[in-house]
Design goal:
Pfam families: FAD_binding_3 (PF01494)
Organism: Thermofilum pendens
Number of strands: 18
Oligomer: single chain
CATH architecture of the largest domain: 3-Layer(bba) Sandwich
GO molecular function: FAD binding
Shape: globular
Protein name: NAD(P)/FAD-dependent oxidoreductase
Order of helices and strands: EEHEEHEEEEHEEEEEEEHEEEHHHHHH
């Protein structure tokens, strides 16, 4: 691996992008499309590996924001999700047609890299610290959760997932989300179908990730009614960030994008759509010659949504299993499944959360006020 020393001359450029993950690739891609001269630096000798992400994205986000139309990246499409509570309460949210895709992340990133390599200067196997670049040009920091400010790193959860061959078919058009402290503290566990007989099972949590995942695998058949793990095919490690967007996206000539900017959904940790939106806004700002407009553009587009999701995440984190189960039972009785199936969006969750909260306030005011009190308490925690 080559290292870049301070002051080392780079090829002519308008912008340097540090990091060849999805945030760096999308940034370089959209910047180059806008006519800017771009140098991309990635420390690994290839992109896309090792794989970390589950790869579940909305079809709308894939088409509208990620802007990859190659069907080869789509491993499977799903039309709904089962949410399973700590004691077995189930909520079903679904549509008649697919709403999300499981994508092949390594292939997706390779396709993005191929375009970047055609339009820009892409240097692989180059280790660099963004602060060592003294070119004076904008430096896009897309180095993942390691680039987060120290104050935000407490929101980074270790994650682990396995691909498993099942003993028999379990269907492939619904994902499973498992809630409760036995499976996760700080997020949830999941089982995502890659096909009828292969599922990606994982979780992110503040502690005991492997033990929690082993417990989930033991209970998976009972929880789903069909998914019985037979043989492990692959193992993926990683990290999930749920702490919201960082306050300052532009710091001198350094510009934060993707995980380094906290541009993931606080409710789920997913980031492909939001980082793609941010990368497009970055290209808009830099093409005008005003880097600081990037922060204005991104926060106008995503700020309110992410703030609402962060409040919801803090509320959910504040509930013990008993309170969570009670909430799930109540919203089920209030028709949340029908509301979410009709109006829910994977990428824009605030509007649905507000409607559900108003319904809860009108029809179960005591529970709503109790949750509001917990929300206020949770918001006092940094």
């Amino acid at each position: 691996m080559r290292s870049i020393s301070p002051g080392l001359s780079l090829p002519h450029h308008d912008v340097v992008v540090v990091g060849g993950g999805p945030a760096g690739l999308q940034s370089a891609r959209f910047l180059a499309r806008s006519g800017l001269s771009v140098v991309l630096l990635e420390e690994h000798s290839s992109v896309g590996l090792p794989q970390h992400c589950t790869g579940l994205v909305s079809l709308e986000g894939l088409a509208k924001h990620i802007l990859v139309s190659d069907e080869k990246v789509v491993v499977n499409k799903v039309r709904g999700a089962w949410f399973i509570g700590p004691s077995g309460v189930r909520l079903l949210v679904e549509r008649s047609e697919p709403v999300a895709a499981v994508v092949n992340r390594p292939l997706l990133e390779q396709l993005l890299f191929d375009e970047v390599a055609r339009r820009a200067c892409a240097l692989l196997g180059m280790r660099v610290q963004p602060e060592l670049l003294s070119t004076g040009s904008p430096v896009v920091v897309a180095t993942g959760v390691g680039g987060l400010p120290g104050s935000r790193r407490g929101y980074v959860l270790p994650a682990l997932q396995f691909d498993y061959l099942l003993s028999r078919s379990c269907g492939c058009d619904h994902v499973y989300v498992f809630l409760g402290s036995q499976y996760s503290k700080g997020l949830f566990a999941w089982a995502v179908p890659l096909s009828e007989k292969v599922y990606r099972v994982g979780l992110a949590s503040k502690g005991n990730v492997l033990l929690r995942l082993e417990l989930l695998l033991k209970r998976l058949y009972d929880l789903t009614g069909c998914a019985k793990p037979e043989r492990r095919l692959a193992v993926y490690g990683g990290a999930v960030y749920t702490g919201g967007m960082v306050d300052r996206l532009v710091r001198g000539n350094m510009i934060l994008v993707g995980d380094a900017a906290g541009q993931t959904k606080p409710t789920t940790g997913g980031g492909l759509v939001y980082l793609s939106i941010a990368a497009k806004k970055l290209a808009e700002a830099l093409s005008t010659g005003e880097p600081r407009l990037y922060e204005v553009f991104v926060k106008r587009e995503l700020g309110a949504e992410m703030s609402a999701q962060l409040a919801l995440r803090k509320l959910l984190n504040s509930l013990d299993d008993k309170a969570l189960e009670k909430l799930m039972l109540r919203v089920k009785k209030l028709g949340f499944e029908e509301l979410a199936s009709r109006e829910g969006s994977m990428d824009r969750q605030a509007a649905l959360a507000l409607k559900a909260a108003l319904s809860l306030l009108l029809r179960s005011p005591s529970l709503a006020l109790n949750l509001f009190s917990k929300l206020l308490q949770s918001l006092l925690v940094p």
